[in-house]
Amino acid sequence: MNDVEAGTEIVSAGRGVLLAVTDVVEESPDARSLVFTVPEQLRDRFTYRPGQFLTLRIPSDQTGSVARCYSLASSPHTDSELKVTIKRTVGGYGSNWLCDNVSAGETIEVLPPAGVFTPSSLDTDFLLWAAGSGITPVMSILKSAMASGSGRVVLCYANRDERSVIFAAELRELAARYAGRLTVLHWLESVQGLPTRAQLTGFARTVFSGSATFESFICGPAAFMSVVKEALSEAGLPRERIHLEVFQSLSSDPFANEMSCAADHSDGGDAATVRIDLDGASHRLRWPRRATLVDTMIAADLDVPYSCREGQCGSCAATVLGGQVNMAASEVLQAEDLADGLILACQATPVSDELHIKF
């Protein structure tokens, strides 16, 4: 937390912005939401899509600070303020610090919204799956689809017990308001046990009723997402309609504005040429063979979207329209994404001599 005025851009950190916490909402015994107000002059930078996340800088006595990503539970279609939800995890420094130390009126350094766990269109049917705090980005998608979409939404939400349910009252209110379009199913381990693949496959088949038009978004523990993905595939949903959110702990500092010398000197003149379409403008750059696209764009003073620089958050996702790249890591991209030409710019190095990439 900081004493600097909210809305200030932190020049020394390079990329962060201080946002004021205007409210703290206790969502369940072990989860709370932080509500941020975005100053008018920063509205464009904090425009977001349902399902995206914020990266928060959290003070640390050992390292000075740590960065943690938390999904937005607010919807850009219904909410004027940003809301992230944090659930305590055993041994989790960031979640426990935020739950124990943040009050309304304080400020936190934040990076703009990022992430690829977001629908391409709201005018479709959705089958949403969440477990525990995985409800956070799913809630953003659900509210957006209800407010601005035209299809049906079915949510299957798994928790240990009734007390663990985050957004319980809000989900009841939404289900009542959109009774003709929204179905909410709670799965409680204390009552029903852990869901099996066979049970989830049967449920999915009932929802689909022979239709494969649903888009399915899944967020929760890895084991939960794996069994749901298998169930959906068995039920006949095409793989390209199954979307998983994957978070990893960050080991680097995404708030630092690092300028990579590698982009200028590492290849002794051996470089590709890349055309980059970014924010409505086209740029043509020399791309050294050993430099990542993010490093190359930073060196060229382009405002490239990125956060972790480790291939774990999806902030720098882009599409290859021409040419070929090597990817060092792609944990947040599925095989179908890669086949469609999606890459992570922080992990991509050029193979072809000429490339065309769009953000």
How is this structure best summarized?
The chain is an alpha/beta fold and 359 residues long. The chain has helices spanning 93-101, 135-148, 168-177, 189-192, 197-208, 222-235, 262-265, 293-299, 335-339; strands at residues 17-28, 31-37, 53-60, 64-71, 82-87, 107-114, 126-131, 153-159, 182-188, 215-219, 242-244, 271-278, 281-288, 317-322, 325-327, 342-344, 348-350, 354-358.
Question: Can you walk me through this structure?
Answer:
This protein starts with 16 loop residues before the first strand and ends with a strand. The chain contains nine helices and 18 strands. Helix 5 packs across helix 6 (222-235). It is α/β, with parallel strands linked by helices. The strands form four sheets. A six-stranded antiparallel beta sheet has the order 4-3-6-1-2-5, covered by helices on one side. Strands 9-8-7-10-11 form a five-stranded parallel beta sheet, with helices on both faces. 22% of the residues lie in helices and 31% in strands. Strand 12 and strand 13 form a beta hairpin.
Number of helices: 9
Helix content: 10-25%
Q: Which class do the helix and strand fractions yield?
A: alpha/beta
* Mean pLDDT across every amino acid position: 89
Secondary structure: number of strands: 18
Strand order of the largest sheet: 4-3-6-1-2-5
How would a textbook summarize the main sheet? 6 strands, antiparallel
N-to-C span: 32 Å
Uncertain runs? 8-13, 259-266
Radius of gyration over alpha carbons?
Answer: 21 Å
The global form is: globular
Could you tell me the strand content as a percent range? 25-35%
Q: What pattern of helices and strands is seen along the backbone?
A: EEEEEHEEHEHEHHEHEHEEHEEHEEE
